[in-house]
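Summary for the steering committee. The consortium agreed at its last meeting that each partner would contribute one worked example illustrating the joint modelling workflow. Our contribution is presented below. We chose a case with several input lines so that the handling of multiple components could be demonstrated. No manual editing was applied between input and output; the record is shown as generated.
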Amino acid sequence: MPSNPDWVKALKPSGPQGSELLAQERAKSTLNVDQLANFMFTRENLERNERILKILLADPVFDKSQNYFRGRTERIEAALARGKRLQQLSVQHKWTKEEFQVANDLISEPTPYGLHASMFLVTLKEQGTPEQHKLFLERAEAYKIIGCYAQTELGHGSNVRGLETTATWNPEDKTFTLNSPHLTASKWWIGSLGKAANHAVVMAQLYIDGKNYGPHPFVVQIRDLKTHEPLPNIHVGDIGPKFGYNTMDNGFLLLKSVKIPHVNMLARFSRVDPNTNKYVRPSNPSLVYGTLTYIRSNIVLQAGSVLARGVTIATRYCAVRRQFQDRDAPETEVGENQVLNYTMVQIRLLPLLAATFALHFTGKGMISLYQENQKRMNGDAGKLADSTGKRAPGPEELNPGTDLLADLHATSCALKALSSTTAAEGLEVCRRACGGHGYSSFSGIGSWYADYLPTVTWEGDNYMLTQQVSRYLLKSARAVLKGNAADNDTTRILKEFRRRQDIGAAFDVIGSDSDLVAAFAWRVSFLTFEALRHRDEDKQSWNSLLVDFWRLSTAHAQYMVVKNFHDALNDSNTTNQLDPETVGVLHKLFRLYALHTLEREASEFYSSAAVTVRQITLARTKTVMKLLEEIRPHALRLVDAWKFPDWQLDSSLGRYDGKVYEDMFYRASELNPLNSIVFDPYPDSKVLFKKDERANLRSKL
Amino acid sequence: MPSNPDWVKALKPSGPQGSELLAQERAKSTLNVDQLANFMFTRENLERNERILKILLADPVFDKSQNYFRGRTERIEAALARGKRLQQLSVQHKWTKEEFQVANDLISEPTPYGLHASMFLVTLKEQGTPEQHKLFLERAEAYKIIGCYAQTELGHGSNVRGLETTATWNPEDKTFTLNSPHLTASKWWIGSLGKAANHAVVMAQLYIDGKNYGPHPFVVQIRDLKTHEPLPNIHVGDIGPKFGYNTMDNGFLLLKSVKIPHVNMLARFSRVDPNTNKYVRPSNPSLVYGTLTYIRSNIVLQAGSVLARGVTIATRYCAVRRQFQDRDAPETEVGENQVLNYTMVQIRLLPLLAATFALHFTGKGMISLYQENQKRMNGDAGKLADSTGKRAPGPEELNPGTDLLADLHATSCALKALSSTTAAEGLEVCRRACGGHGYSSFSGIGSWYADYLPTVTWEGDNYMLTQQVSRYLLKSARAVLKGNAADNDTTRILKEFRRRQDIGAAFDVIGSDSDLVAAFAWRVSFLTFEALRHRDEDKQSWNSLLVDFWRLSTAHAQYMVVKNFHDALNDSNTTNQLDPETVGVLHKLFRLYALHTLEREASEFYSSAAVTVRQITLARTKTVMKLLEEIRPHALRLVDAWKFPDWQLDSSLGRYDGKVYEDMFYRASELNPLNSIVFDPYPDSKVLFKKDERANLRSKL
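What follows is the complete predicted structure of the assembly.
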């Protein structure tokens, strides 16, 4: 590629430079960035992250400069190399699981080892017996076998009970036969299966003596340990390109009557007794639900940070980018206005900035609730065992009077759905707030958004989850009506609504924070009892209520976020660790998040009589606009507090130093392999390229 | 790539086959698909499309089977080959502009000739003199020169008046010097510039004797006609990969004091007199605004069809995909439920299905209004000439009393913003409604969505446009208050609001179609006078009102769509050409679109007192749900009426024959080049691939 001629190198952006503009921005606020960052992440973690970043930066295999230019095969080739090196570094530096995760987050793209390092190891550990740990887990931890977790099928996503793959017990030789009876039984979407894995935990319907005992996990070797070719009667491969996540080898797998020994069925919870040929029931199914709750709580916490990347990039760029003069500016004033000064940009970005903190504190809150509950659960273990047979009870079927798990589970479902939707859709808003340049790969938002999108589907499809949440809320409401409800936050707000229902609500949502939280609780309760009436009194079909359930679950999640953010700000821990100014700015973010949400969902707040039309109009035209103005000067420091290194963001627009246009130009003109090609532009010539110097380029890199 | 073993070839999807399910679907309704299609597109056009499709199918250069697998360079290489062949075919078959466009639509990805064939030719034609037509246009039409339209700069998107590139008149040798004074002056995003063009129409600030006369168009040769290398003092190239549109070579361009002759300034509207060295003013600037209005009206019409592709794919797949049993189904009923039966899927897809028709009829309506107005304008030409100097007046500055252009222009801005946002965001909803498989490239939605996204930014950024709309509405409202308003639809609804404001509105939005339309008009008028009060009485700054303006413009556009859809259904042309059953189903779609929109924007309808809380609740819980149920049986035939050939959709999920899973599997296992590679999966081995047979594959293709 020809490098830029000297006259081009001498050119600078016009007007005030990006670096000056960002320096001015940072000078507008005295918010203590490091203090806020330490409060959110701890100083130890931030130092650890820097240490790991240095290790990665020193290694050429992690060079990102060609990432955006590569096609799928080149990308997965690079990801494989990085995955290998990461594992070597992990051994060399004796990284903990958290440190390994930090390195992955900094690299910011999945590797083909992703599902080995997470679901394969976790499943072996949690669902394997000590004997199986020795046989599989130890070798997997040493990367002597590489595995994946094969549940979803071509024809079956969310509905696990509908899986078609079978595992039939053979009493004569004490083996299982794994089989894919139809094309739709093909395992599909399985991360790390397509190219990397030589083993898979396969979820299959267990059949003993013709009877189906439901889906269970089986360890199946699928590729030869030496040649890495598929074993006989196994058809396995990569499922092809996707909207994102293309450094991962999501795979397919078909099994034609493949035999595996008895020991390959993961047997910690349930098993087949090889002597009696009988099924032995799970001892404590709720522990599995606990894990799901933990995974979902982490998705909530992550969602804040996922979104914060987009908000960081867009906020920085909108402070550098100037466009049009202010229409009301005096004629004497020249120069264009920073895009971040336009209220139409603020109303898109600043509520998302507020959401990043709201989700962060909500995720933290969920994780500590989970940990608290785990302690309690471990004391109670065994109590919940299902002795009646048929199938393992879902947590929604446990009596909410006896434990908090059901409440926590429902909340984690609701919040997983809301937070991942907020992050995914928010990233797209950030991308568009960058105007035309948001569409360039160099914005760093598009690929990040595309890679994140599956989160709205996996670990429970966001729409499906809302049914579980509503089922739980209806159950709680029935218990409240019967007077035998447990004492937890959900039943408290439902009872409070019943108590004041006839008196009516008069929440001062603009003047009082606690009233604002209470208005969100009121809306949830109103929608719960309305849905209950439709279901129990009007006998409406479940299907006809799905839309109401989705609204109800969203309302519940929004209430939880508002409540958690409010609680976090009023925690003595917060007020002790942060300057009053910082707490003040966070408080404005809390109010912006809550009032902006209230206004967007105005119709439900009206219908429930939680607020008046006048209040909504006030919130919209005055309070929210005022909050935008007040938060505006702190925007840049607030995104700085998320502490994303430039290398992690990999964005021309989001550079900490504001050198946006220089970086765009550099990447386009000096890194872009397409500029090593010269077209023949005439339709009648047979030649496509007059010159193609990509080969030189490749050898240089 | 190993082809599938025989035992895999023998596998079929389980349960009822996709082809059976779609046949059942089509049998559920007797809607006359061909009649509806002929009504929408005319039979002649549909036959023409089929004829062109056959030509493309016969030519291996248009084979799409590797499209989703290719990296950027391979894609642009294929697109260049296709662009060349398309031009050859166009000459061979003597294609009209429309026929050429049909071929492009069927191929469904831009080629590097895209901006040559559109903006370059159009600009030369519309802004060139007869002498310039001879010099540039004729050669361009013969593809002897390839060009582009270079307006946007690295630092300047929407603000054309802020462009930095200069064109300085040299009286001594009667030339212009084109120069890029800063890095931000680099032309950027220019389609066909990066690799294909050897000429560019460059928009630059015209300077004569030190005075700036604003942006004007100049033809600049940028590459050698033989070697295709950049000419001296010109730095040009491709700007790199984007979120989509990667078969287009969007480019950058820097000019270092490049001299061009006098004849290279396009001089139909304004020019420099080479004898007096004086600027000669534009004779009829409003013609240019007319073109923009036409382009935007076409975006509205296209938006319906763009969205319809996604809706077609998602509707077909949701009829094939089955997941979970109906919760209320009797225990004896086995088998999973079609996803399209779930109300949560219907509420996402069917209002979008309604929107496709709403946008189609609205686009048609806009285009005939435009044509009507052009006729009238041609009679009036010359009247609008600006004799006062300074700068060309925008249409918003023309007196609405003397012509309809301002009204049409404002409406086209509002509708362009709403329709492109509806299509872009609707496509993403369609993608997610396909569940996990929507994320696969083989869904055909992701890439289509990504390619369409720039439409929300180009031809007027959607957010920026809403200011122009509001400015026009405020101006009309002021005229109404002063009593000197012109008579057009906008002033009529504003006057009607004023008349009934104190009496109050009582629209029967559920029982009466015309009341439903009137409620949308009422909301627009309410928001207009509210914004006017804020601006003129409260003296609020323009910037503080941008959010209100955006809402106002959206409300105006939604009113126009509802009104156009309503008018189309009540047109005698419609009722003559279509069966009453078809009209009946379209009528339900009209009501679904209107009531679903009303419910989503409930808060503004309340605040304006156009409807009561009770009406909204009824609309939400009863009417909309009922409409979903009634439209459901016709869904498949309605999407069939859009008549997209499978080849155009290029989607496993959207196949007309329902063979969804077979096609997914075929593409993944037999077309996927990644499956020609065998990984070495162990972190400590130095080798990445044990085997790489892609080369064999390439030579085969």
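Chain B touches chain A through 147 residues (CB under 8 Å). Residues 381-402 of chain B have pLDDT under 50 and may be disordered.
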